[in-house]
User: Fold this.
Amino acid sequence: MLFRSFIPSLDPSGEGSSWKITIDALSSGSWLLLGIIGNVYPADNNSHKDSTCYAWQTSKYGRHGGSVKEHPSWPGFVQGECLYFHLQANKLTMFSVQKNQKFTIADVTSTDDTKYYIHFNFNTPRIKLTLEPLSRDELARMRA
Assistant:
């Protein structure tokens, strides 16, 4: 598995932190996880199992504190999909532009000293992603 966490840390206070990910290439049978993590150096490189991982996976499942959790309304990622993310307080929201649908993890655990980072995890180098800042207009669309 390949994983990457991005520094600096996200700021969940005030307006929160937001970013955009576009899935440029997603091969058949590949596994992809997108979200946040609080531990930049997880044990045994198993970032998806880390207790600070909150994310959505390729299928209808995600990770909440490293544990598998079903997201029945989440149909999974598709190639070409553009996703808007927003972390504010203890809530991580993902908006799929193509699906015109919002998905939320409302129970992100944090303390005063917890820091979270943008997190990718995938099983093949054939997956290609683009990470960009989210514009104010895109953030407004996500909140609508």
